[in-house]
Each structure stands twice: as structure tokens, then as C-alpha cells.
């Protein structure tokens, strides 16, 4: 709950509404219960990257100020300056957190890119996905242009409450940005249409400022800037039918002031004030009638921190004025301290830091340690505080939002109030509430992966109904080394099946088979729409696009990129080799085999690509067709394949399917007409003692297109993106080569620190690289009750 204690006594409004009418707050509450606010923040290991290396990340999900358990999947995308998705990763989420990495191709050119992340539930309120700019240093851009400085300025005005009202004193906020959307300092004069100067104006922070004005009905107003004196920036027209609404932060809370001009029609008189946070109405306060000036104080000390949205309504439930104001009670902070127990900037030496919390807690945290001299800024512009409490509820761009959470000084609070006045709340509009046209719930969380489809009997219109169906899963990438499950599932009366809440990674080959042996029906599986790998329509976010790195930072990062290329051997020029034409067997092996499965002068190959596929299974098929290979069954009925070489006894062969060791039961179910070829290796280095191996390769590409009907069907489904483990050398171990260059920019990435009421002291151990003299340490995380830990510190270099 947002409200910790009663702020303002809510009085029943009796005659304001008819008995059957739904009030605005009731409509909002009904919508909010079905369309909850979901937020996703990414803790990244760095702010700047080099092409060819990964972005390490951890996602934190929140709903109603606590970790969200409603999301099972997050999508992370890297976009260019045209909002084209270049890289996309999909990761599972557990208990409100998710972790993974996004690999940056070596071919990326130097520039600014957009990192975007979301969960499907977030898209029910479009425009509120996680997004930030990151700098990537790589190859020189093909069409590199000189940096443009430009002096184009856009000046926007935001009357407090929504309107300037004739004859009433009001505040007008302004914001100045350049042609790229970044804030610029401005100063100038406010003038009327007669050219008379009313007052001087000056930006106070990040191009934002305020001035006061009493508009007259017979005047219009504009601003001229000292930076572009030839241009006039007109203010919005004032109205005679409206109210003035002013909000000021005080030590007691939020003081408000509502004023009506003389002679205002009754339909424009303020009747009540509503305050809401996170789509939850906190209070509804009737306002005294018959008064032109109404004031009061909202006691905000009992609120959780965040954006408070205040709206004044008339007696007919129509909004008259709105104002955003920020509540910062700092209850969201989990106090913590980073202690440098042992600091050693000598190459390859061990460092020991620790996180000290005041008490034991339950929560999930992540830590990044990087080379501070390869960062573009001493502090990150976005952190877990500023995102969850500020950015995630504002559609517009906020420059350096973390600034507003680094100090509780009055100057910072005043600057944050300027952000409130120059950005609108856009999760909903009260006009949409009144018209019951709020955004519908279009997206649901799928609950991880579900496989669903329909099975039919090949060559008929009959469903494979109410029957057992065997399902076996094996990874397409044999390097994964993980074998998927084998299950017996049952179809319903229409031949349909469904399996929910599945988690697997990368491409998985899924084999469906009738289990009745020689009486098996030839089946065909038609899968339902992919529940995981789907495209979402996401509004393009207008984020300033500029390379803001200093010349020194650019030089360092470009050098780091060249060091990476040299270490990976990626700067060698390609070499063209001419030779003889390859045989059919060599072409076959080039297409299907790799690594230690390739070649072999004494190996034998049985090419099945053009065979009709006789026999009930591949083991029956090869019986007697390959010299030295015998097939039999053991006492459990399982096939056993042995190889007998000249002068040697028979040995049981290791079985491989697409170069992954596999059991005979799985291979037995694969139709012969889906196998490309078999390779027999009498001596194979991949088996213990260089024993014999039988490698079976399934058809792909053009070979697979020629497959005829069978009692099984195979589909390939792409699961979650692989979650890799961060590698950092342990120089206390003897197996680490100290002579190998160590130019890591990220020295430690610890994404999965889970505390469950254990010691409030968390140790951090890492080893230095070849060159780092200053360590930048960032610690972030969430407790189960919604408190946030954020520590950002540079250690060393004194």
C-alpha cells in the first residue's frame, strides 16, 4: 500500500454524484486493479562498452512498491539511432529479478545506442518501458561526420496547474533544450505584445526555471533569449474561464492554493481535490464552496516516496487543474556502507571489500566493480532510486535524474520541483477516466514457455485424439551439454495438447511420437503461436542522441577496443587458399560435422539422404549394412550397438546425435527418413580410452525438405537466451597464465547475491587486472519489503 497512515480526512460527498454514477476514483481503481503498474530497472556492469564484449545486466521488477512476482519473462534489446533492433535477448524472471547478458558484435561502430527492456505486462501502459543511452566504442563509423555544436534552442512553457488565468497571479515553468533534446542554459526577458519588458528570466537547473505573471485579457506574451535574440517564443494564451492552482513544498507537507477569478461561471468552480500515486487514489478532499481563495496543507509525511498527482475537479467530475509534486520521505533507502578492507592496485593482486548493512534483511542484490578511469562520468546519470521513483512514471526525457537523489538540499528539491512542473503525468488522463476509455489490457504474462498445438493423423482429417504422445527434447546446439526432458503427454478429444511453465534455453529440438511401436500412427504436429519469441509494437521513445564522452574518454575506450581486437586475433587479414575440388564425402562432412567429429581417415560413412528409409528404426536399418557394426537388445529391451575391429574384441559404441552424446531410446524414435547420414569411428578421442563411436546426423535445410510422412514429427523451438557466467581470473590459482594480457574493464560482476536474514556483512573479493588504479564499485538491489540499496563509490587513486 502507498498510504501508510491517513493524510486528509476523506468526507463523503453526498449530493455531488447520483446514486448510480461511478465516481472518477472508482473508475480509476477498477481499471488499476486489472492494469497494474509494472516497472523494470536494469543494473548494468558499466556505462560505456567496447564492441565484441558483453553488457552484463540484472533486472529488478517492481509492482506497488515491492518486488513484482507477476512477470516470468523480460526482453532486452539494443537499438540504433533509427530505433532498429540490432540485438534481442529473452531471459526468465524469478521472484522479481532476472539476470543475463547481451553480446555486442565486434563489427559495431562507435556511437550512441539505446538499450531497451520490458516485460509484456508493462506494455499495457505503452510508453513506459525501461530505456537508456549507452556509448559503444568500436570500428570507425563508415560515414563519420564532424560533431555538430549548433545553436538551435527550443523553449517550452508550462503554466502551473495547466492554464494561465487572466487577472490571477500564476507560476509559469519553462524548459530549454537544444536540437538534440539536451538541456541548455538560457536567460532572457518576458515581454508583452507591446514590446514592454515585464521581467527577466533565468534557467536555474538543466535549462529549467520559473517566472510569475498576472496575465491581462488584452495582452499576449513572449520571451526573447539572450542566446538567440532574433527569435520570439510565444507563451500559451491565457483563459478567463479557469482556476489558479499552486503547490509548494513545506516542512509540514504540500501546501496548496486554489483561486477563482471574479465572475467565474459555476461549472468552473473547484469542488474537490483528489491525490493519487501509482494509479491509487490516496485521498479525496471536498473544498469549501462560495470562496474565491481556498488553501490547505496535504500532510505528506505518511506517504511512501514518489510522484503525487493532484487534480482539482468541478461538481460534475471534470478536471479543472492538475499538478505533479514529488514526495521524498527517504523511507525507500536501505542504509548500507561499502568498506574497503584490503585495497591493492598492483597487477593481479587480491582485493577484499565488504558491504555493511545495519540489520539482517531478505533481498536480492548485485555488484559491479570496474576500472573508474574508463568511465565517462564519475556518477551514473540513472540509478535504481531515480528510475523506480521518477523516470518510470514520466514519459518525457529527464536529464541526469540521479542528481535529484544524491542530496536533500533545498536547491536539489527545488530543481526536482521544476521537473514536476515541466513533465506531465501520462499513464492516464482524467478525460479517459470520465469517458471510460482507459487503455485496455492487451498483454498477459505467459508464465514462462508453453508448448501447445494439435496432432493429426497424417493423410487424414482425423485428430490424434485422447492418446498418449511421447515428447523428447534435445538441444540443437550440442555444445550446451544439457539434455531436455522426455515426457508422456495426452491429447484431448480434438487432438490438442499443452505444456505450461517450461524453461529451456536456445534452440531445442522437440520430437513427438506415437508410443505404440509397430502399430504407431503416422502423425503431423501443428504448433500454436510461439508464446515466447514474438514481436511487440512499442512506441518509439524520443531520447536525446549524442556522443557525450570527453576526448580523453574516447581515446581510452578506442585504445581498449584495439587491445581487445589484438588479444582476440581479429585484426588479421583474410587469406584466400586455392585447392582441389572437394569430394562428395568432404562436402557432406563440411555441412554437418565440426571439431573432433570431422575427418578421420579410418571412419566410415553411410549416406541416407536419398534413401527411402526402410526398417522400423535406425538400429534395425543399419543391422548388417555396416561392416563391424552389430545391433542387439539388452535384458531391458534397450538397443546396444557394438563395434568389432579386426583382431580386437567387440566394444559398445558411444552414441551421438548431432554431435551430442545421446541414449539409444531417444535415437530409436527418430524416423530413418529424417537422418542424413551415419558416421562410424572405430577410435574416437571424445570417448574414454578412445573407444568407438556412432555419430548420427539429422537432416537439415534442403535435405530435410524431402522428408516423407512418419510416425513421429520434429519441430525446433527457440527457448530463452543462454545466461552465461561472468569470468574473472583467480590469480591465486596456479592454472592462470599471468603473462596473458588482462585488460578487463569490468573486474567483478556479482549479479545474484541473495540475503535471507543472515549476516548483514557481505564480503566482495576480486583480483585486479594489469592496469587499474581506481576501482568504481556500484551496489544495487531490492529487499522483499521494497527498500532499495544503492551504493556508488570510487576507491583508490588517492
From TrEMBL:
It comes from Niabella drilacis (strain DSM 25811 / CCM 8410 / CCUG 62505 / LMG 26954 / E90). Keywords: Signal. This is MG2 domain-containing protein. The lineage of its organism: Bacteria, Pseudomonadati, Bacteroidota, Chitinophagia, Chitinophagales. Residues 1-21 form the signal peptide.
